Amino acid sequence: MPTQASILIVDDHEDTLYALECALAPLGYPVRSATSGDAALKDVLRGSIGLLVLDVRMPGVSGVDVVRYLRRLEQTQHIPVLLLTGFGADAALTADAYELGVADLVLKPIDPLALRTKVRYLYEAHQRTRALEAELRELRADPETRPTAPPRRRRGQPATGPDTRVPVQRESPARPGRAAGSEALGGV
Question: What residue spans carry the Basic and acidic residues bias annotation (predicted)?
């Protein structure tokens, strides 16, 4: 299994970062933090981020800009993102966020239990996906572990064994006065 990735929390307010870290601490996942979009991009590009919890409005590079950039890169396009906003519901923001593939848009103040539930689901799903991708790469790299497929027959070539597409038919015992297999015809 790949190394355990971290959750990156990004907000320009230190008190919000602290509150989010405290809300996620019971999950026991490794958590890192950043106070700007630029710092978040640098951290994500270093690798090993399994989930991004990102404030929308920050000075400099906004949360939406961070997501827009990450979605263009193959190595970061599948990292799940939770966007946080304290400015209420905004139809344009919501449309932009979901168009970029953001997992959810969470309104502040944040319910810690709801946040933990979303984070647990998204983080574990991403970890499972990474583990499956690593296993697939390993299987593709090692020819010894590849399952061998039966040789394909060409059209018109006779089968070398029984046709496995049709189930084997069992003969039913003949009863006195009836022909074998007449039960299936309603005893005709």
Answer: 135-145
